[in-house]
Specification:
Elongation Factor Tu (Ef-tu), domain 3, seven-stranded antiparallel β-sheet, 26% helix, 4 domains, 17 helices, six-stranded mixed β-sheet, 29% strand, Rossmann fold, 634 residues, alpha/beta, 29 strands
């Protein structure tokens, strides 16, 4: 092997026994991030002759340091980066000294690559934030500092670079140090240390510089080798997102994944967060053999004492310290797409190993990076940071990001293109009852279905007022009961006289009306009943949310398709007449829009079908669905 130009640090301490520090560099464009890391790697660990030769060749072609080696090119690996002299992608580098091993993420400075910077920060424990001594604090400096804080990094090195270009001026360094300290005060960093340095010439990078006698702090390398960061992954409670159900044969059933936080031992009790079912760990299986215990970061397969229902995306935790499970969260979002984020947009939300449908239901505000103030907003532009509300189609298990970065971070994915649209950090559940968890049942839905001799369904009739929903729904129930089926009819008007008597008819109240009816319908279906709902439910998103409460195939959306003029002519309850006279407001089909279903299970054109004929079509569909789902008692 060729000898190194700068001697690598001694390997007297085995690499496996050294602590590891994950860090990133960030700051505005041309502040010298890549140069700093290239210089740090060379001075701390050494480069070999073939690396130096390659750097010399690249420096002649792309370099910006005259005849000197341009250490930035060690990290700028893409041809486009080298030609433009900027970092586009996130470059990861590994090096080690006798005291510590390092994983470095060099992130882009350009604003349009903020998404890459957020990616690099997601797993880092410390951030080196560079500032050009000539330019001082810039908007992108503030933006990166805010993102670093949001992403849970609590230790910051303020690297005031290119200090040689201001003649190693102490006053200039102290001015920048004070400016950043004032700006960063609300960001709750655990430590901030400012270091004046010259990445190009190595001043205060690996060793203290004799050209700044006024500076009495550590070199950058000394600080990185000695700083103690919080190892939250070890201290946090057990979180094990299931990535894969390992079933190679009938004799083995294990659950594979990486321990996100905490530790697990054979014999420990664990709980499935979503279902609330508890069991014990019987084995911890790895490629190298079984373990007695395993800790955060270890990839393992767990076998359990009981045959309980667990799938990819489930999270195992400690029964006395469970993650929160909800469908409604408040989160900080970093928007990464050119198209602004708007209320009502639908995505796929990926958190841990779970991917679920999600909707952006509310944008509360955006962060003004210059002042760290929040201002009200209804959308998020590219690179904006804002507080939002998100509703998921199925419950998700999480911890607040400030408590556990592994189980509190997520991304939003476009459902059509599968592009990553945003990175998010969960702040809180929007449900008031956050201290309750699912109580597992002895008598399950399949047992109830078997007792009744049928499969449960939710048959959801939607359409304009006076379209014929209630009439057809009543006929459907009568025909099913005559066939010996167990049913329950939930009519919107009847529920408005009891469960939903406190709700009005504005858009928000209508959404809440549908939410409550959906929850009741799910309970009825869980009881093994064929549940029939007759409800205007004018908004498509509300119906979609109700559908996600049921497992696949258990929700039938029936569109009672009656033209508006026919509904007005029928006016079976006089609602249209009262609306025309100004006696009632928010009338669907007159004052409020009705959103037609996109892909209903069945469309009933009532101008072509009699109520009885329409009911026959529905009964036929119901019988087909329940026959496709044979009874099975678990």
């Amino acid at each position: 092997m060729s000898s190194p130009l700068a001697s690598p640090a001694s390997s007297a301490v085995p690499l496996a026994s050294r602590s590891e520090l994950r860090l990133l560099t960030c700051g505005s464009v041309d502040d010298g991030k890549s140069t700093l890391i290239g210089r740090l790697i060379n001075d701390a660990a050494g480069l070999f002759e073939d690396q130096i030769k390659s750097l010399r060749d690249d420096s002649r072609r792309f370099g910006t340091t005259d005849d000197d080696i341009d250490f930035a090119l060690l990290l700028d690996g893409l041809e486009a980066e080298r030609e433009q002299g900027i970092t586009i992608d996130v470059a990861y580098r590994f090096f080690a000294t006798t005291k510590r091993a390092f994983v470095v993420a060099d992130t882009p400075g350009h604003q349009q690559y903020t998404r890459n910077m957020a990616t690099g920060a997601s797993n880092a424990e410390l951030a080196i934030l560079l500032i050009d001594a000539r330019k001082g604090m810039l908007e992108q400096t503030r933006r990166h500092a805010a993102i670093v804080s949001l992403l849970g990094i609590r230790h910051v090195v303020l690297a005031v670079n290119k200090i040689d270009l201001v003649d190693f001026d102490r006053a200039r360094f102290r001015e920048i140090e004070a400016d950043f300290a004032a700006f960063a005060a609300p960001l709750a960093f655990s430590s901030i240390i400012a270091i004046p340095l010259s990445a190009r010439f190595g001043d205060n990078v690996a060793t203290r510089s004799d050209r700044m006698a006024w500076y009495d702090g550590p070199s950058l390398l000394h600080h990185l080798e000695t700083i103690e960061t919080d190892h939250a992954g070890m201290a946090a409670s057990l979180r094990f997102p299931v990535q894969w159900v390992n079933r190679p044969d009938a004799e083995f059933r294990g659950f594979a994944g990486t321990i996100a936080s905490g530790r697990v031992a054979v014999g420990d009790s664990v709980v499935v967060a979503n279902s609330g079912q508890t069991t014990q760990v019987t084995r911890i299986v790895t490629f190298d053999g079984d373990l007695a215990t395993a800790e955060s970061g270890r990839s393992v397969t767990l076998t359990l004492a009981d045959e309980i229902d667990i799938a990819r995306g489930d999270v195992l935790g400690h029964p006395k310290d469970r993650p929160t499970v909800t469908r409604r969260v408040g989160a900080d979002l970093i928007w990464m797409d050119d198209t602004p984020a708007g209320i009502g947009q639908h995505f796929l939300l990926k958190i841990g190993t779970a991917t679920v449908p999600a909707k952006l239901s509310h944008v509360a505000d955006t962060l003004v990076v210059e002042t760290l103030d929040r201002q009200p907003s209804t959308s998020l532009a590219l690179n904006a940071i804002g507080r939002v509300h998100i509703e998921t189609g199925r419950p998700i298990a999480f911890d607040p990001y400030t408590v556990n970065r592994q189980t509190g971070g997520f991304i939003l994915i476009d459902r059509t293109t599968f592009r990553t649209m945003a990175a998010g950090m969960v702040v809180e559940s929007l449900d008031r009852a956050t201290n309750v968890h699912h109580q597992p049942e002895v008598v399950t839905t399949p047992v109830r279905e078997a007792v009744k001799g049928q499969k449960s369904l939710v048959v959801w009739f939607t359409g304009l007022p006076s379209s014929g929903k209630s009439t057809i729904a009543n006929l459907v129930e009568a025909k099913l009961v005559a066939l010996g089926r167990h049913t329950m009819l939930l009519d919107g008007d009847n529920l408005r006289q009891g469960l939903n008597a406190d709700l009005g008819f504005d858009a928000a109240a209508r959404s809440e009306n549908v939410r409550r009816v959906g929850e009741v319908a799910k309970l009825m279906a869980d009881a093994g009943l064929i549940t029939i709902v007759a409800l205007v439910s004018p908004f498509r998103a509300d119906r979609e949310r109700a559908a996600t409460l049921m497992s696949d195939g258990r929700f039938l959306e029936i569109f009672v398709d009656t033209p508006t003029e026919v509904c007005r002519a029928r006016d079976t309850k006089g609602l249209y007449a009262k609306a025309s006279a100004g006696k009632i407001s928010n009338m669907t089909g007159r004052d409020q829009v009705y959103e037609v279903p996109m892909q209903p299970a069945l469309v009933l054109p009532t101008t072509e079908l009699s109520p009885s004929e329409a009911a026959d079509h529905v009964v036929k569909l119901v019988l087909e669905r329940i026959q496709d789902r044979p009874s099975q008692v678990l």
